[in-house]
Amino acid sequence: MKNAIVKNAFVSKAAATLIATLFAGAAFAQSTAPATAPAAAAHAEAAHAKEVAKEQKDVAKAEAKESKEVAKADAKVAKEKAEANKDVAEAKADAKVKKANAQEKTAKQKAEAKEDAHANLTHAPQTK
């Protein structure tokens, strides 16, 4: 009978161990399934975030390039305006010089014409 009790105790322990293992296995299986889903979701989310960051970086690069090109174009326009204003100023200065020279020449011609007219009046023969 002692043998039967030991045998029953062994069977009881074995059954208890088997049942405990099944419960532990079931609990472990349930806890690992949700753990892999968030990991996969986190991985997909990280990949998406990386992709979004790359797109934002590309957009920022494009905007910086556009800003640089606009600044270059504005600088070119400003330079051309400055050159045009310089040309206009030079043309105005040249026109003033030409006008002054023409006025001086005209004044000389008038003075010479007056002198000639006066000389002709004084040396003209008088008729009686």
TrEMBL record:
It comes from the Bacteria. Residues 48-128 are annotated as: Disordered. Residues 1-29 form the signal peptide. Residues 48-118 have a biased composition (Basic and acidic residues). Keywords: Signal. This is Acid-shock protein. It comes from Pseudoduganella albidiflava.
